[in-house]
Amino acid sequence: MVDVIGASESDLMAQTLRRLAGEFDGVHLSKALADFGFVEVLDEAPREAVSALFDALGQAGSMSTALQDVLLQPLTGLLEGATSAYSVVLPRIGAPLAGSLDGDVVTLRGLLIGHRPATAFVVPVAARGETAWVSVADPSVLSTRVVAGLDPALAITEVGSAGLAATVVSFGEQASELWNAVATAGRRALGYQIVGAVGAMIDLAVAHACDRVQFGRPIGSFQGVRNRLAEAYVAWTAAAAALELAWEADDECLAGMLAKSLAGRAARIAATHCQQVLAGIGFTAEHPFHRYLARALVLDSVLGSTPELRRAIGQLLVSTGTIPRLVEL
Amino acid sequence: MQVHDFRAGVRAWIDARGHELVAPLGDDSVDAQLDHQRRIQRMLFDDGWMRWGWPKRLGGFGGSATLRAVLGEELTSRALVHTTSWSMHEVLGPAVAEFGRPEVVEEIFPRLLRGDEFWCQGFSEPDAGSDLGSLRTTARAYSDGWLINGEKLWTSFAQHATRCVVLARTGEPGSRGVSAFLVDMDAPGVSASPLRTMAGVDEFCSTSFIDVQVPAHRLLGDANGGWRVAQYILSCERGPIFWQRGAWLGHHLGMLLGAAHNAASQTALGEAYEMLWAFRARSKATQDRIALGDLPGPEASVDKILIAAADQAVFDAARELLAGAIEADDTPRGRAWRREWAYSRAATIYGGTSEIQKDVVATRLLGLPRSA
C-alpha cells in the first residue's frame, strides 16, 4: 500500500474488504485478509479499514482474526517481536478485566475471540486497584473451553488458570491507558460488526414484510409492523452515526463506549422487532435470521453490554463533573 | 465568518456581560420569559451576533445557518434564553425569507431579528392535527386580497405575537388546495386565547380568524402552493432548532450530576446521556448538510424521533434522580423542573408526532408498502 490513502483508493480498499468478508469465513477469510495486507491497511487508514471490514463481517455473518489485529494495534510498542505472534485475552462476559495479579502470581479468567492458533497471550488484569498487562508465552499451561453457547459459529474460547507465574509487561497508569485504548479499538470494531448484523436483520424483516400477505395485503402496510421496523431502523442509524463520530470526538474512550452501547441497544431493539415481524419463519433453524440475532447479542456482551456501559458512562460523567459535547459544529 | 471564530466571539460576548444576561429569578411567566428574550436579542442584534447566518438583504451579515445553530447552542446551553421561544424565528424566518414578497420581507425581517417582532405559526386546527392537509380555515379572494375565516389551535405564543404564518384552504380538498399567508396579529378579526398547559404555562393558544382581511402581497409563495411552504417550515425545524434543544437538554443533564449517588442513578444518567448523544451524532450530520445548502428530507424524521426520545429520557432521569422534586418541590427550583419535565411529555407530539415520523421512515426510508 502507498503511504497516504486517497479517496478512490480508500473506496477500493473498502470494496475489497467487503467482498472478502462476504466470500470467505474463518481461517479462509483470515488468510485472504493476510494476503490483502489488512494489518498494513489498518495502520494507514484505521477508520476506513475497520468501518468497512467489520460492518461487512456483521452483514455477512462471518468472522476472522482481524479483531485481534485491531486489539493488538495499540500494543505495538509494548510487545516484543511481531504483534501477530500474540492474541489479546478479553474479560469474560460481565467482567471488567481478564483476571487478577497478586505479587507475581496471576489468576486468569478470560475470553478469546477471533484468535489465531498457537500464539502467546497478552492479558489485561486487575492488580490491587491498578491495571496490569501480563503475557503468557506458553498458552498450553492454561485450561481452555471452546464455547458453543448462543452463537457456536463465533467459536469464542474461555481461558483460565489458577496461580501462574506471570510476566508483567505493563503496570499502573500506562497499563490502564493501554487498556482504554485496546477496549476503545475493540468497541468500535465490535460496534460496526453489531450494526452490520442489525442491518441484515432489518433487511430480512423488511423483505418479509413486503412479501408476506395476510388479510389480503402485505403485512408491511399494517401500522403495528411498520412502527416496529421504523424503530429498529432509527436505532440502527443512531448507532451508525455514533460510530462515525467515535473517531473524531474529543474523548475517544467515552465516544467508543457510547457507540458500542448504542450498537447494543440497536441489537436489542432489532432482535425483538425483526423477530416479531418475521414471526414463525424467523424462529426456524433454516432461516438465517437467528444467526444474526445470536451474533449481535453475543457481541453486545463482549467489552461491555449496553447496561454495563451505561453505568460506566454515568460514573465517568459524575467523576469528571461535566456533560461533554464531544463534537462541535 | 468561520464557525470556530464565531463561537469564540459569542462565548467572549456572553462572558463579558455575565449577570446582565441571566433571567431574573422568581417570575416564571411567559411574559417575563419573552421580556428577557427581547432584551437579550436586542443586545445581540446591536452587537451583530444575531445577524450572522441571515441574508444581507434582510438585515443579516450572511454566512451559513450553522452560525445560528452555534448562537442558539451557546445561549441555551447556559439557559440564558428558553429554547421554545428562542426557536420561533428559526421556525418561521427561513420560510418567510424564501417565500415572502421581497418588499414585505425586507421591511419586517430586521425587526424580527432585533426582537421588536415575534412571530407565531398557525398550522394545526381542532380537526386537523397529524392530518394537516384536511385543514378547514378558508381564505377567499376578496377585493384585492384575501378574507380568512377559521380557528387555529396550539399556536405557541400567539398572544404575544406580531405576525402569524397561517395555512388556509384556497382550493380543492387536501394538501394541494392550501395557501400560506403572513397575517398581522393586530388585524381586526384576529383573537388569541391562551390554553394553559399541564406544565401550568400559558404558552399556546386557540386563535380565531373572523373575516380577517389580508392584502394580496402577504401571500407566501403561490396560491395553492402553501403545502410547499409548510414542508419547508417543517424541515427548517430539524435544523438549528433541534441543535439548540439538544444543548438545552445537555444543560439540564449537567444539573443532575450532583444527584447521581448510586449505581441505579448513574445508569439512568448514562442512559439519558447516551440518548442525547444518539440525537447529537445524528443531528451533526444533518447540520453539516444544511450548512452546504441541503434541505433535510425524510431522513430528518429520524432526527425528530431521536430528539423526542432524548428529551423524555433526560427529564425521566431528572424525575428519578431528584427524588420528589417534580412531584412535591414547590420552590422556584422545583417549579422549574416540573415545568420542563411536563413540557418534555409533549416532545413526541409537537412538530409532527413520533407516529407520523415512523410512518415517513417506514414508507420513504424502508420502502414498505403504504398503509391502507
Q: Characteristics of this structure?
A:
heterodimer, A: about 325 residues, alpha+beta, Butyryl-CoA Dehydrogenase, subunit A, domain 2, Butyryl-CoA Dehydrogenase, subunit A, domain 3, 3 domains, five-stranded antiparallel beta sheet, four-stranded mixed beta sheet, 11 strands, about 15% strand, B: about 375 residues, Butyryl-Coa Dehydrogenase, subunit A, domain 1, four-stranded antiparallel beta sheet, 12 helices, 8 strands, globular
Tell me what you see in this structure.
The complex is a heterodimer of chains A (329) and B (372). In chain A, the strands form 3 sheets. In chain A, strands 2, 3, 4, 7 and 8 form a 5-stranded antiparallel β-sheet that branches. A 4-stranded mixed β-sheet of chain A has the order 1-5-6-9. A two-stranded antiparallel ribbon of chain A has the order 10-11. The model of chain A has no long low-confidence stretch (mean pLDDT 95). With 329 residues, chain A is an alpha+beta fold. Chain A is 54% helix and 16% strand. Chain A folds into 3 domains: 7-64; 80-171, Butyryl-CoA Dehydrogenase, subunit A, domain 2 (Beta Barrel); 176-320, Butyryl-CoA Dehydrogenase, subunit A, domain 3, CATH 1.20.140.10. The longest helix of chain A has 39 residues, at 173-211. Chain A has helices spanning 7-23, 26-36, 38-44, 46-60, 66-72, 173-211, 223-245, 252-282, 289-301, 306-320; strands at residues 86-88, 90-91, 99-102, 105-112, 120-127, 130-136, 143-146, 157-165, 167-171, 213-214, 217-218. In chain A, helix 4 (46-60) packs across helix 6 (173-211). Chain B is built from 12 helices and 8 strands. Chain B has 372 residues and is an alpha+beta fold. Chain B folds into 3 domains: 3-118, Butyryl-Coa Dehydrogenase, subunit A, domain 1, CATH 1.10.540; 120-226, Butyryl-CoA Dehydrogenase, subunit A, domain 2 (Beta Barrel), CATH 2.40.110; 228-365, Butyryl-CoA Dehydrogenase, subunit A, domain 3 (Up-down Bundle). Chain B is 49% helix and 15% strand. In chain B, helix 1 packs parallel to helix 3, helix 5 runs antiparallel to helix 6 (102-114) and helix 8 (263-291) runs antiparallel to helix 9. Chains A and B meet through helix 6, strand 11, helix 7, helix 8 and helix 10 of A and helix 3, helix 7, helix 8, helix 9 and helix 12 of B.
